[in-house]
Write a sequence for this structure.
């Protein structure tokens, strides 16, 4: 692991300290988890953007998925 230095608002540090005490963890562990979740969120946003762009370039055509109609199960059938 690498040690880094960060500048945070005092209110944020106080809030983090309160939460880590409740969770029984450390600032570092809490921050690592928060950063990993933030990175996942950014990655998901990027993938969703690419997905939207793909469908904008090549929209679904009428009947494109009709072949799957017989494969769908709606629970009460």
């Amino acid at each position: 692991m690498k040690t880094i230095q960060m500048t945070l608002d005092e209110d944020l540090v106080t809030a983090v300290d309160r939460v880590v005490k409740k969770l029984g963890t450390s600032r570092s562990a809490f921050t690592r988890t928060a950063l990993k979740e933030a990175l996942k969120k950014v990655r998901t946003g990027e993938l969703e953007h690419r997905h939207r762009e793909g469908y904008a370039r090549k929209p679904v055509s009428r009947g494109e998925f009709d072949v799957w109609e017989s494969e769908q199960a709606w629970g009460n059938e």
